[in-house]
Design a protein that fits this description.
Helix content is 42%, strand content 12%. The chain has helices spanning 11-21, 24-30, 38-49, 93-103, 118-124, 138-151, 181-193, 195-203, 225-234, 240-249, 262-270, 292-303, 318-326, 336-368, and strands spanning 51-52, 68-70, 73-75, 79-81, 108-111, 128-133, 155-159, 254-259, 275-278, 308-312, 331-334, 381-382. It has an 8-stranded parallel β-sheet with strand order 4-11-10-9-8-7-6-5. Helix 11 (262-270) links the parallel strand 8 (254-259) and strand 9 (275-278). It is globular, with a radius of gyration of 20 Å.
Length: 393
């Protein structure tokens, strides 16, 4: 099916449409990667170094099963929405993402730095996983987790892959603290070049509000994104004993996000994690570190089936998902891909992205002669000898 006005057939097309619709600074914020972007680009490029085993041509399965379970939730395909911060690409924001994921039959991660309250997001998609940073003291962290539990979040994600390396060699768009008159005047030229973006927000009640309601304590107003970010920067990073403490407070599925080393994977399991995500924060952590797909096999081996293993970073095609599953992931998490879909078409664009990936997964399974995502093995992928050079075993 070729692309139409309402439908796009590739994630690359979703990105092109997002670029045409979004003001330049908003679009560049989606492309963000730390420093030179070496890790950001390797996340994508490393998939191209992997090759599939030669396709089979007869005796192929008439139907393929894509369904699986992640963090205690049954999902229609091994792809979920990764939590991402303030989603100012569309007025529906995280609610639109949750709705699109639900329509695709899968789960959505919600960032504690989201622009929409967890209660609204869980209503849109009951299969919502709430993400926290180690931000503030234990009481404040626990209060956020308890609010998410009360709202109906099905799992807790604690994100550890961030070292505040946000300088970018190519220049970084200035994110305003608030949309006051001075800011509106400064951004007016960009808005005039993308009137559809501005008008859509105005039809939904006004321009983006850069506050993060899920970071507010009970009875407090929602802090600005930068106020919450400042609290995070000033909070000492957690010890493994802190992660174990938080795990004890949460009696449901518990995912540690940001694991790139086998020893960290084992420590996460020892701390009680039921899942780990191989992630480098979409290339926004320490620049120059390897792509997540390069680190995946060693992490999966280290976990040894004691926890679910997810991969986050660089997924652009259904074939990328299949490669990750073959190398040890139970499922993958996508971020930029669904944000481009959200920008291109709201919740329908988010579902469109999931459907594109679903089609690619199904096609790869057919060619490989696999009737289920659970049948994939390392034999389905050809890995270059130097692919994971220098990584811990």
């Amino acid at each position: 099916m070729a692309s139409t006005r309402e439908w796009f057939e590739t994630v690359a097309e979703a990105q092109r449409r997002a670029k045409k619709r979004l003001p330049r600074s908003v679009y560049l914020a989606l492309l963000a990667g730390s420093e030179s972007g070496a890790t950001l680009h390797d996340n994508v490029d490393a998939f191209g170094e992997l090759r599939f085993a030669p396709p089979r041509i007869a005796g192929l399965p008439a139907t393929r099963e894509l369904a699986t379970s992640v963090l205690g939730q049954e999902i229609s395909m091994p792809v979920i929405a990764s939590p991402t911060g303030v989603q100012a690409v569309h007025p529906d924001g995280e609610v639109g993402v949750a709705r699109g994921a639900a329509e695709a039959g899968t789960a959505a991660g919600l960032s504690s730095f989201a622009s929409m309250p967890v209660e609204d997001v869980v209503t849109a998609n009951p299969k919502t996983f709430f993400q926290v940073y180690w931000c503030g003291d234990r009481d404040r962290i626990l209060a956020r987790a308890e609010r998410a539990r009360t709202a109906g979040a099905k799992a807790l994600i604690v994100t550890l892959d961030w070292c505040f390396a946000n300088g970018r060699d190519w220049g970084s768009p200035a994110i305003p603290e608030r949309m006051d008159l001075r800011t509106l005047l400064r951004l007016a030229p960009e808005g005039m070049t993308r009137p559809g973006y501005v008008l859509e927000f105005l039809r939904h009640g006004g321009l983006p509000v850069l506050t993060v309601p899920n970071m507010a304590a009970q009875g407090e107003p929602a802090p600005s994104f930068f106020a919450a970010y400042g609290e995070w920067m000033q909070t000492p990073p957690p010890a493994w004993s802190d992660i174990a403490w938080l795990r004890e407070q949460w009696d449901g599925p518990f995912l540690v996000k940001g694991v790139m080393r086998p020893d960290d994977a084992r420590r996460a399991v020892d701390a009680g994690a039921t899942a780990v995500s191989v992630s480098n924060h979409g290339g926004n952590n320490l620049d120059g570190t390897p792509a997540t797909i390069r680190a995946l096999p060693a992490v999966a081996d280290a976990v040894g089936g004691q926890a679910e293993v997810l991969l986050d970073g660089g997924i652009r095609r259904g074939g990328d998902v299949v490669k990750a599953l073959a190398l040890g992931a139970r499922a993958v998490m996508i971020g930029r891909a669904y944000l481009w879909g959200l920008a291109a078409g709201g919740s329908a664009g988010v579902r469109n992205v999931f459907d594109v990936l679903r089609g690619g997964i199904d096609s790869a399974l057919l060619a490989l002669g696999r009737s289920s995502v659970h049948e994939l093995t390392a034999d389905d992928v050809i890995v270059p000898a130097e692919f994971a050079r220098g990584l811990q075993k």
